[in-house]
Amino acid sequence: MAQAAIELIGINKSFGAVRANRDINLEIARGTIHGIVGENGAGKSTLMSILYGFYQADSGEIRVGGKPASIKTPNDAIALGIGMVHQHFMLVDNFSVLENVILGAESDALLKKSIAKARSELERLEREYGLEVDPDAIIEELPVGLQQRVEILKALYRGAEILILDEPTGVLTPAEADHLFRILKQLKEQGKTIVLITHKLREIMAITDTVSVMRQGTMVATRETRKTTVEELAELMVGRRVLLRVEKGEAEAGGVKLAVKNLTVKDQRGVTMVDDISFDLRAGEIVGIAGVAGNGQSELLEAISGIRHAVSGSVMLEGKPIDLTGAADPGELRDRGLAHVPEDRHHVGLVLAFEENENSILGYHDDERYLKGPFLDIDAIRNDARDKITKYDIRPADCRLKTANFSGGNQQKIVLAREMEQHPGVLIVGQPTRGVDVGAIEFIHKRLIAMRDQGKAVLVVSVELDEIRSLSDRILVMFAGRIVGERGPEASEGELGLLMAGVEQREAAE
Amino acid sequence: MSTPYAKLPAWADYGLIPLINLAVAFIVAGFVVMLVGENPFRAAVILVEGAFGKGTGIAFTLFYATTFIFSGLSVAVAAHCGLFNIGGEGQGYIAGLGIGIVSLAFDSVLPWWLTFPIAIIAAAAMGALWALIPAYLQAKRGSHIVITTIMFNFIAASVMVYALVGFLKPPSSMAPQTRTFLDGAQLPKLNWVIELFGAKIRSAPLNISFLLALVMAFLVWLLIWRTRLGYEMRTYGHSPKAARYAGISETRIIIIAMMISGALAGMMALNPTMGDQHNVALDFVSGAGFVGIAVALMGRLHPVGIVLAAILFGMLYQGGAELAFEMPAISRDMIVIIQGLVILFAGALEHMFRPYVQALFASISPRTVGMEAAKGKGA
């Protein structure tokens, strides 16, 4: 086996009580493409951030090229020949490609020399690796795939021998992704080492030589890619840990509450995020939408709740259409019985600078119960907030406390209490337990099931497969903006994992 | 680790830090005074005595403060909605047009207590109107409110020159100002209130608009923290995304907040015109709109803080004038330097000492800095 480019030995990293990396050992051979897979929050990005100098490990050792290395800042990493291509590009939008490439690596006070040097260097890189890009193009005018290429060029220009790519294909079209893989293979042939972080198993199978699987902060396995299968990786990724299952009876689905038909949503860049989706949500059932983050779930939720423009399709709430032009009044939808727990509670669902009681009326602040004429009825609002605090066991039980001072779980309970206590006919919930501690998860799940048992329609979107399986009466799997399958709650994790990874069922069976 | 401006106890946040900022401003100003060869301690004594020593000084201090309260409230209302209204100067100036027209029309026929409310409405309406256009452009076209309100300051200045050398000026006069208002547009003085406390006042312009300013401070508090509209403004100011989610119309809230802000800025024109000079003259706002930004920042956008900060700036204006009179080496421009230093340290560099104060508090007792609450005590 080739000499190791990087060795990580006994890496530990904690954020507060969360152990993001536990005793990680990893050896990456020189001149190979090494994949790292795992669910969201498994610790992949933390590990790579440690390697790139964004974080310091609490303990453990990093060896680069066999020698112990101390990587305190990204500059140390660059000096050791480690380059990183981030999921979200770190480019100056209104600079040219050349200017971005030399940014931070200018050799002189005057730019002329650096630019000339970079120009010839870029030409060489282009010849060697097929990394064509117009050096004088302005970044914001380039498509995403080319912007990513500039990121790769930046790393190579700084002499990177080891290239880390964090979810590189998340923003790419399939054709762009294919081109990226060709570039990566070429880089490998030139002796570079590539670390690919992804949760798309198909990519792992297509391009990597070795693959390591992370789960809940630990490295559970490392396999040679050609000796493993997608099924095995999916199982390793999802794990066989005991489910936190909440008791629930059979669903008694009633009439259709929410009907989504041929819904298509594009993002600001014009990329199709939700692609012709149709489904029904009935009274008395929980429908779960599973999928890896970024496959259009957020956009779907926002379109249904009237805060994002949809290109085409329709959404009927209790038989009446929802305005999908993006100009819908969320207040009016609330009046019609649609409650929405947004994925991003920090910026959307809550105003963190507000007192708890102020957040407990957000969106319902024009309700007569909380008003006396144009004035807020402070007593009514606080009493109402105190009731919810008791009912939902929100701690600390202080409705005057700033919302930012509550823990994630309690913040989520504030949002849930607000939305559920309006007794909506339809509740849509994005990531019900993201960043929520275990005790609160069970509580939130019980509440959601109680809502269902009262005959409400509940739509849950989550990247946590366990959560989807435990809550849902029906599971829809989203991949690349489409619903790629519907399963019952008895579907196995492996099966769902494959669907989430975009692997067709028949393909996997072969 | 990602919250550099974490919690401090309220008294440190609202009392200690402004005091430290102020002290540093005065220390630096003291060096400037030393540079011109005067004794900084004596200068400080003259400044404070000039502002608060005699009844007349107090009356002048409060007279200046009146204008700053209005302009400070104006900035604060917009800031609570996440908007930086830098156009108070122009909104106040253009309000002089409304005041001038109302006063010239009614001062011979109505008593002051009827002219005053009409003039308040006229001033507020002109200020609001002047803020409406930038607000509309921001809400509908995304034109940055800072740029447009600055530009509207210049437009207001030109419009006022046009009006004051034109139809507002008496035909025979050479001065670019209106004729002197008659009794019907002169606001009553408040000097007798200070005289109640035994102080003697020779002649000072403190007038009833000071009370209007205090009423407005209370109304702004009521608006921001006690009404549905204020709630919506604060929601939008903290998080436009949350406002969108809550069904608050971005266009509506921006326009309303800016119009209220403009109306308050407009009202500051009442004090120097109907309250003091009894005319509308060229450049009567003289920078009070900009001082309002410093006042609002120093007052932490709270009406009580704004009233206190306005009085501090009133003191600098009045005490500064005394200082220039008593110490010939300290010119009027030197006073502007001192005022500038206060604005610099209390406004622009507001957070300069905060990390050190926080570190100090954290080293004494981590609990006071609220660390354990921020980390969360579990569900």
UniProtKB/TrEMBL annotation, chain A:
A GO CC annotation given for this chain: plasma membrane
Keyword Secreted: no
Keywords: ATP-binding, Cell membrane, Membrane, Nucleotide-binding, Repeat, Sugar transport, Translocase, Transport
Primary location class: membrane
Pfam families: ABC_tran (PF00005)
GO MF, any single term: ATP hydrolysis activity
SMART domains per the UniProt record, alphabetical: AAA
Bilayer topology: Peripheral membrane protein
Domain ABC transporter: 6-241, 258-505
Subcellular location(s) per record: Cell membrane
PANTHER family: CARBOHYDRATE TRANSPORT ATP-BINDING PROTEIN MG119-RELATED (PTHR43790), GUANOSINE IMPORT ATP-BINDING PROTEIN NUPO (PTHR43790:SF4)
Homology family: Belongs to the ABC transporter superfamily.
Name listed for the protein in its UniProt record: Uncharacterized ABC transporter ATP-binding protein yufO
Organism this protein belongs to: Mesorhizobium metallidurans STM 2683
From TrEMBL, chain B:
InterPro entries in the record: ABC_transp_permease (IPR001851)
GO-annotated cellular components: plasma membrane
Taxonomic lineage: Bacteria, Pseudomonadati, Pseudomonadota, Alphaproteobacteria, Hyphomicrobiales
PANTHER family recorded: ABC TRANSPORTER, PERMEASE PROTEIN (PTHR47089), GUANOSINE ABC TRANSPORTER PERMEASE PROTEIN NUPP (PTHR47089:SF1)
Domain of life of the organism encoding this protein: Bacteria
Annotated localization: Cell membrane
Source organism of the structure: Mesorhizobium metallidurans STM 2683
Protein name: Inner-membrane translocator
Main location: membrane
Topology of the protein relative to the lipid bilayer: Multi-pass membrane protein
